[in-house]
Amino acid sequence: MADRLRVRGSVRSAVVWHSVRQTLNELSTDTGRSQLDVLDVGGGTGGFAVPTAVLGHRVTVVDSSPDSLAALERRATDSGVTDVVRGVQGDAARLTDAVGSEIFDMVICHSVIEMVDDASAVLRAVAGCLRSGGVLSLVAANRVAAVLHRAVAGRFDEALHALRDPLGRYGANDPVPRRFSLHDLEMLVAAAGLVVVGKHGSRVFADVVPGSLFDADPQSVDALMAVELEAAEVPALREIATQLHVLARQP
Predict the structure, then answer these.
(1) Where along the chain do its domains lie?
(2) What sections of 153-249 are H helices per DSSP?
(3) The pTM is what?
């Protein structure tokens, strides 16, 4: 079971990680610096922060959970990157309280804005931490996917609720306070003064493929990752992805 969960986790993050890594490479080329400064807002246990540090970059993680930050420290220690990973307890909407006047080449903000009261405030705070030419990697839950997944699970009333609900929620027991359309994200990013430079769908198929498939055919993992990477760029498939991934640049 643990191996299966790790496999599903790697597939689910493959598209976003591919894009983040590519963007870091491009920023290094543009700036002429092999070591970039990266801020991970709500980065929790370091799922993206530690691999970014392993690539040689300095990473600051701001998260409100002390338990998550403790797990981040353990993960950084296990990966030998404690010298370039820093955890700071803080709130996403008040980043200056956590990082002061520091500015960063990239800000990672994944699965955060759907959980906060004011997504606009968070993105304005994020934009204020980006240096000129810096890039935001923004991931948020897709409202269309919630409709699809509830219907596929046979929960048709919940699918209809998610379709009609202005926040994209499927009911009172939905753990996600809000979901977004791609247009929503583009408008939020623009209002923060950033320019969209990339749009992807993440987990187009990964959340609907039966987990038993990976046990029966281990090679299917690589095949699924390949099709996820291709599908991420197709507008029609991007619209049904569990998550939407937007890259935006500070002018």
Answers:
(1) 2-142+180-249
(2) 156-164, 182-191, 212-216, 220-231, 235-238
(3) 0.93
